[in-house]
């Protein structure tokens, strides 16, 4: 297995994490988070972000414990060869299908909003070809692409809700009362899926420079994503009201239209917003698919040629998997089912890895202490 340079800095790791988490979900979150919680929908992304933060802490711990190693190498060390290999397979499978669902959602948004006469397949293929081209390069190119595009992703994500709030009716947030804690739990678990992407750090942490601050990068990325999602939900509720949000397929796009004022922005500003958003989706899918292909490369101990061939071969089933849902209702249903698998891969496995490794370290320290006492 070739030994690659560790050259990811703190900011590059933050960029990768943010780019992986902020993607298609930002267009639907005002509707999904208010479906059960109504005017208190903004609570969902906060609690969902806190759930994800627990898993992120576990991943940071693993990053410090196994510097220079991806999950492909350290999972079998912690869980043993068989269970470790199963966990690696689940992780790769989840990233593959997650990239497919995200690509299909991207295609649906573009077709319904900007290019109604363009075949869905043409839009998805174009995006996937770009992603495959990214996989033709070594891993440091991924860091540079994310670092370059992150300002174009982050600034509109913050500015659009702020401008939309100029049309806000703050009474739409009242009363500040939670009717059912069951609804809070369900909405929070659904909102949690918006943050998936942070688990990719189990691949990218391996290439951080020795002085990189993994904890700072992770918490900066997570807190920024929470702020963006909460602001988007609050803007949606205050501008439209939770009842109206349930009638909108892409409520965040409607927020963009609301922000338009003569002399402020170009006409049809949502088209410009979608152009920027394309870069965001590209980095999300690119990071997922690259992690999938790169993990296979590390698993089999191969080089860049294997990675390039794998990317081309895997693109075919990935493309056909995006076309399985027959309509947008089925697509959202598939996405929900994938989220269930996501809890296992992105929350349960990292936390269990961290706990197992921590306990093992404690046992080893105790044994070492006992041996030293016995020696004296």
UniProtKB/TrEMBL annotation:
Signal peptide: none annotated. Keywords: Germination, Membrane, Transmembrane, Transmembrane helix, Transport. The keyword Membrane applies. GO terms for biological process: spore germination. GO terms for cellular component: membrane. The keyword Transport applies. It comes from the Bacteria. The chain crosses the membrane at residues 12-30, 42-62, 74-97, 117-136, 148-166, 192-212, 224-242, 272-293, 305-321, 341-359. It is found in: Membrane. InterPro entries: Spore_GerAB. It is a multi-pass membrane protein. Belongs to the amino acid-polyamine-organocation (APC) superfamily. Spore germination protein (SGP) (TC 2.A.3.9) family. This is Spore gernimation protein.
């Amino acid at each position: 297995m070739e030994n690659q340079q560790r050259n990811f800095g703190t900011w590059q790791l933050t960029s990768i994490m943010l780019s992986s988490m902020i993607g298609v979900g930002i267009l639907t979150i005002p509707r999904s988070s208010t479906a059960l919680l109504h005017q208190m929908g903004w609570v969902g992304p906060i609690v969902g972000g806190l759930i994800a933060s627990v898993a992120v802490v576990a991943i940071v711990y693993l990053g410090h414990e196994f510097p220079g190693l991806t999950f492909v190498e350290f999972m079998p060390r912690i869980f043993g060869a068989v269970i470790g290999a199963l966990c690696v397979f689940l992780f790769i499978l989840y990233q593959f299908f997650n990239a497919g669902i995200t690509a299909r959602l991207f295609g649906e948004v573009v077709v319904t909003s900007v290019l109604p006469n363009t075949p869905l397949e043409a839009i998805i293929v174009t995006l996937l070809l770009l992603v495959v081209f990214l996989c033709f390069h070594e891993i440091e190119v991924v860091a540079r692409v994310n670092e370059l595009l992150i300002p174009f992703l982050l600034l509109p994500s913050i500015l659009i809700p702020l401008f939309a709030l100029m049309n806000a009716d703050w009474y739409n947030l009242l009363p500040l009362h939670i009717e059912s804690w069951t609804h809070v739990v369900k909405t929070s678990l659904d909102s949690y899926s918006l943050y998936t992407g942070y688990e990719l750090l189990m691949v990218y942490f391996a290439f951080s420079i020795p002085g990189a601050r993994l904890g700072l990068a992770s918490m900066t990325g997570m807190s920024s994503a929470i702020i963006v999602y909460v602001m988007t939900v609050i803007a949606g509720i205050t501008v439209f009201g939770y009842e109206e949000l349930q009638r909108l397929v892409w409520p965040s796009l409607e927020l963009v239209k609301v922000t338009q004022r003569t002399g402020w922005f170009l006409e049809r500003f949502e088209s410009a917003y979608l152009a920027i958003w394309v870069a965001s989706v590209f980095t999300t899918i690119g990071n997922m698919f690259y992690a999938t292909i790169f993990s296979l490369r590390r698993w089999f101990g191969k080089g860049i040629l294997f990675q390039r061939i794998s990317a081309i071969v895997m693109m075919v089933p990935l493309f056909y998997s995006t076309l399985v849902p027959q309509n947008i209702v089925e697509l959202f249903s598939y996405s929900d089912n994938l989220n269930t698998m996501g809890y296992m891969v992105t929350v349960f496995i990292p936390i269990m890895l961290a706990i197992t490794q921590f306990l093992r370290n404690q046992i080893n320290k105790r044994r070492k202490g006992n041996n030293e006492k016995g020696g004296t």
